[in-house]
Amino acid sequence: MTDSTSDPSRPDHWRTLDKDLNKLSHIEYAALHVSRPLVGWGISLAFIVLAALAALAITGHARGVAFIVPAAAFGAYMALNIGANDVANNMGPAVGSKALSMGSAIIIAAICESAGALIAGGDVVATISKGIVSPDSLASGRTFTWAMMAALLAAALWVNIATWIGAPVSTTHSVVGGVVGAGVAAAGLSAVDWPTMGAIAASWVISPFLGGLIAALMLAFIKWRIIYRDDKIAAARAWVPFLFGLMAAAFATYLCLKGLDNVLDIDLGHAVAVGLGVGLGCHLLAIPLIRRQSRGLENRNKSLRTLFGLPLVISAALLSFAHGANDVANAVGPLAAIVHIQGAGVAGAEVGIPFWVMVIGAAGISFGLVLFGPKLVRMVGSRITRLNPMRAYCVALSAALTVIVASWLGMPVSSTHIAVGAVFGVGIFREWHAERRSRRLNRSRPPAKRLPEEERSRRKLVRRSHFLTIVAAWVITVPAAALLSGGLFLGLTFLLD
């Protein structure tokens, strides 16, 4: 087809008009490309305003509405940031391994996060973020309210910054840092329970290491028992049902401990017993399913990936449900505390979360995921190390097992640190295993065909730049949120008191 702008039969003024129209079309495309991110910000702003208006409509005649309305806006902002950042840990491996498309992952996560928040979300939440700051140290209800508002806004700002730079961080630790900063600014260093803070600091190291170790051991087991067998399909028929049952047992226990603990009062021993029963049942159901699914598959690694697709999708959905049940309190816990103190006049050790507050948290997490989540989903799923369904399955299973082990040991852990640590564990194991095989092959080759040491060291399977960015963000999360919160508290009390 001849370009109309170069057609000699067309008059000059028509050719000029064609050029001008082409320029206009390029300008329109550029404007659409630039304005696309603004749509997300516009929808987010509208959601925050609607949350504030809903709080005004529901509590319009209540005492302290002047504090509740802005706190609802801050809670909505925090929920958006949790959806944009934290949910990537659940869906990133499934998307990175291509077991789910980005669109399908977002739909499943939005539904499961909302269901977890509304069905099993915290009916009761510690008002001062799990005993970090003593309620008695914040002398008045007004001081307590300013402290909670500063903590909530500071945590949301920090998670927003982390999402912008592409670092998955712990929203729980962000809220903890916010509460610490506001508590210190309001009542001094003595207000903080430092032994509890020490346990949280220890979890920065323990939880990613434990998650990475369990994920690496699971991947080693799959390679040993399935991938490196002569008859891979026969090995898969024997072991994949066992792994499916193990996953079901781990997630049933995980949900009892972390997803349904607000609906069912269950201890670790009973949770493990429930998990074992569910796992055994799923193992027996998976035997004929895997046998039927594996018929006609070729004896190669690519065929094995199809057998891990469904368990991976189920695990991602269950992780999202448990995350919605637990981490919605990070968004609305301080808001619920403010609503409580404005009604009761005193800070309690525990407060109930009103249903309308829970709806703001659930909706905000879903909106944040849909509007801004893909960036961090891609980071966790494909930019740290390459994942296939088997590796991604190890990451998801590691997240559940690590939480169970941590609950047994009584350690506070971050689901974000566990999941990202598991991704790094899989990548580092792949590097070690590839280097080991390379050395073995080099020894069997003639000297002229051996791969140089420098070339082997260059072939890294984990991106170090992302590793350093994420670890740096983890280390400074609590101090950064604390400094932001302390500054906001002092600013709020100076300007408004």
TrEMBL record:
Keywords: Membrane, Phosphate transport, Transmembrane, Transmembrane helix, Transport. This is Phosphate transporter. GO terms for biological process: phosphate ion transmembrane transport. GO terms for cellular component: membrane. GO terms for molecular function: phosphate transmembrane transporter activity. Pfam families: PHO4. It is found in: Membrane. Its main location: membrane. It is a multi-pass membrane protein. The chain crosses the membrane at residues 38-58, 65-84, 104-126, 146-167, 199-222, 234-256, 268-287, 307-325, 353-372, 392-410, 416-433, 467-496. The lineage of its organism: Bacteria, Pseudomonadati, Pseudomonadota, Alphaproteobacteria, Rhodospirillales.
